[in-house]
Amino acid sequence: MSIRVIADDNGNSPAGHPDTRGSTATGSPPSLHRVTPSGRQVEPLTIDVVTVRFRAITALSEVSLRVSPGSIHAVIGPNGAGKSTLFNAISGVYRVASGQIRLGPQALTRMRPHQIAALGVGRAFQNIALSGTQTVADNIMAGRHRLMRTGFLASGLRLPSARFAERIHRERVSEIATFLGLDRLLDLPVATLSYGDRKRVEVARALACEPTLLLLDEPVAGMNADEKQRMSGMIKKIRDALGVTVLLVEHDMTMVMTIADQVSVLDFGRLIADGPPARVRADPAVVRAYLGAGDDPAAERISSAIRAQQKPAPTNPTSDHPSPDHPSPGHPSPDQPASDHTVRKAAQ
Between the CA atoms of 126, 132, 137 and 139, what dihedral angle is there, to the nearest 10 degrees? Predict the structure, then answer.
């Protein structure tokens, strides 16, 4: 695979980088400066005591968290916890009642969605919003809109400048599709694709705006096991090869615990846990939020059962006990969440 240096409508290289349009960088992963838009630095995302209200309803209550540059950060929580509200506040769809949202030094709180997108924030939505009658290439091309500088008249008359700009952008669309394994689908109408492929096209369109921060709202919702595995690999590839920060909302705990560097948990609009996946998974407050244990002392026993699953088992090959690498049926490995049977037994 080859990644070309990003160019604008005029074919100019980003500021601060030499013009290497005549050559390509081969190998994987490519160097970061070849794929970040206009040489822009990947900045941390800071949510600082943010509250979002809808009249008498408080959807987010004084939420604070930090998303490190180049990380995969997951936001989880039960339905109605405020996860999508947080995404809408970050991307400018909702206005916050109080608090600050910053991407590096830039305050996003009062910006409009198109201004936030221009700073390098891309988003793929939970519900697929692609044009079924248009090709995969045209759908991804829609993500390039904010980078286009050709005027309406030049585009309508198909002037040389407009044709040249379109060629530059379509080359970039082809590169993105190849990077994500969608190149063989570029000329197909989206309506003919499988559900999993359409979700990947949705991510490709978000990536086409050259973001430094990529928001993914339930990227594996409705997928089968194989599709989930492909999407997980694609998300890791985006982070590892492009250096893009990924902030995702997801209900699939297996995926979250596998690929996330950091996990934040919301419940009823409040942040109840934040940290590495292993620590968050064993947090009693998280157990209560998901199992509805309330203040029942059983919640602590459930949490203890989950922590017990993380301890290495004896590795004696003659022993009847399973090893961590070769768990027997009914004995999950330390990296697996506690089974329903274990949780129910602990709660008794």
Answer: -50
Maximum distance among all Cα pairs of the chain, rounded to whole angstroms? 79
Q: How far, in Å, CA of 180 to CA of 237, rounded?
A: 9
Please provide the distance, in angstroms rounded to a whole number, between the alpha carbons at the two ends of the chain: 55
Phi, psi of 324 (to 5 degrees): -60, -35
What is the torsion angle, in degrees rounded to the nearest 10, for the CA atoms of residue 91, residue 96, residue 100 and residue 106? 40
Give the tokens for residue 295.
């203040």
Rounded CA-CA distance 132/139 in Å is 9
214 beta partners: 122, 246
Per residue in 109-162, pLDDT tens?
Answer: 999 999 999 899 999 988 888 888 899 999 998 888 776 666 566 566 666 665
Residues 48, 63 contacting (CB under 8 angstroms): no
Chain segment 17-62, per-residue pLDDT in tens: 333 333 333 333 333 333 444 466 889 999 999 999 999 999 999 9
Per-position DSSP letters for 192-220, written without gaps between them: GS-HHHHHHHHHHHHHTT--SEEEEESTT
Q: Which amino acid is at 168?
A: I
Which residues have CB under 8 Å from 179's CB, separation 6+?
1, 3, 237, 241
Instruction: Report the alpha-carbon distance of residue 105 to residue 342 in Å, rounded.
Output: 47
> Are residues 169 and 149 in contact, defined by beta-carbon separation less than 8 angstroms?
no
Dig out the tokens for 348 from the structure.
Answer: 């008794």
The Cα–Cα gap between 236 and 240 comes to 6
CB proximity list for 294: less than 8 A, separation 6 or greater:
288
DSSP state of 323: P
Burial class (CB in 10 A: 0-12, 13-18, 19+), 86: buried
